[in-house]
Amino acid sequence: MPDIPLLDGQDGARIPAIGLGTYDLRGAAGTAAVATAIDAGYRLLDSAFNYDNEGAVARAARDSGRDDVIFTTKLPGRYHRHDLARFAIEESLLRSGLDRLGLVLIHWPNPKEGLYAEAWRALVEARADGLVEMIGVSNFLPEHLDRIIDETGVTPVLNQIEVHPSWPQDDLRRANAERGVLTEGWSPAGEKAGDPEHETIVRIARAHDVEPRRLLLAWAVQLGVIPLPRSRDAQRQAQNLDVVGIELTEDELGEIAAIADGDFVGADPAEHQEF
Ligand SMILES: NC(=O)c1ccc[n+]([C@@H]2O[C@H](COP(=O)([O-])OP(=O)(O)OC[C@H]3O[C@@H](n4cnc5c(N)ncnc54)[C@H](OP(=O)(O)O)[C@@H]3O)[C@@H](O)[C@H]2O)c1
Fold it and tell me: Please, what is the Cα angle at 222 between 216 and 225, to 5 degrees?
């Protein structure tokens, strides 16, 4: 089983350098897939209220009997109002069957609604009340980070954002780091952006004798990004975790940096409305 390093975050948080994406892992099959991932060594699980799988994912965490598995969920945009955010967190707790949620993120800032600071206050309070161990955000831009930090004095443990070679988000990763916020990377296999098929990625992967997707994950880990690869297949889950020893050279990092073409697959957090 690979030894996954822990990254140090706010308030003594220690977050595994790789986690499991769970979008679309649902029902009994989803629980079974998450169970094989935990057996392979995953200790960070990424769920969301809106994935409709908090029960399935947390069930695998509970059944593992381990106390070092971090269950993540995300607060949807329709529940940013302070009282609604509290109900949603309590509902996530009930759906998960856990005594306490490991990590709760605000899924998207929805800046047009402008209620994300209210939602953040509800997360801060839920943590103080013992419902949640760690709190963070997702798809936040620097101005959103600054507003919640300024209004509450509480800095998110991490910001989960889209990261892959086509859209490496150098500026936003730097902004996170400057504020002491870890970066998690979603869609790290870059499937939709076509990164695993990119000629540069294929060539460098071949030089390291690994599959292109594993190279993408090793690249993220080397940048200090916590990638969240999703796979329902036990063998691919194990392969995706076994990337920590793959060291890219400065030249290779430079070649991969040259791939960046601004081709993101998600949405612009300044505009996007997620409910
Ligand atoms: N915060 C947000 O707004 C946000 C947005 C999007 C995603 N996310 C999170 O990020 C996670 C990952 O992103 P994603 O779900 O878009 O997908 P991803 O991890 O980039 O790619 C998943 C796809 O890659 C395949 N795959 C994985 N490892 C492979 C390997 N070693 N070889 C070949 N194929 C492989 C999987 O197929 P198999 O299952 O068949 O292996 C699946 O089809 C999500 O599950 C979710 O938890 C968050």
Answer: 80
CA distance 256 to 250: 10
Q: Which residue's alpha carbon is at the smallest distance from atom 43 of ligand 1? A: 231
51: annotated active-site residue: yes
Give 167's DSSP letter.
B
In the chain, domain spans:
6-257
CA of residue 238 to ligand 1 center, whole Å: 14
Spatial strand order of the sheet with 70-75 comes to: 20-21, 44-46, 70-75, 101-106, 132-138, 158-162, 182-186, 225-227
Ligand 1-lining residues (CB < 6 angstroms): 21-23, 46, 138-139, 160, 186-189, 191, 211, 213, 228-233, 236, 239-240, 266
Flag whether pLDDT at 58 surpasses 80: yes
Q: How far is the CA of 149 from the centre of ligand 1 (A)?
A: 30
d(CA 131, CA 124): 10
Q: What is the pLDDT of residues 224-254, one digit of tens each?
A: 999 999 999 999 999 999 999 999 999 999 9
Reported confidence tier of residue 215, pLDDT bands at 50, 70, 90: very high
Residues near 60 by Cβ (< 8 Å), separated by ≥ 6? Answer: 31, 32, 34, 35, 37, 38, 45
CA 63 – ligand 1 centroid, Å = 23
- Of the candidates 152, 240, 229, 154, the residue with the CA atom closest to the CA atom of residue 188: 229
Among 35, 275, 32, 258, which Cα is nearest to 165's? 258
Task: Check if the beta carbon of residue 144 is closer than 8 Å to that of residue 116.
Answer: yes
Which residues fall within 8 angstroms of residue 117, CB to CB, at 6 or more apart? 147, 148, 151, 152
Q: Which class is domain 6-257?
A: alpha beta
Which of 42, 51, 79, 116 is labelled catalytic?
A: 51
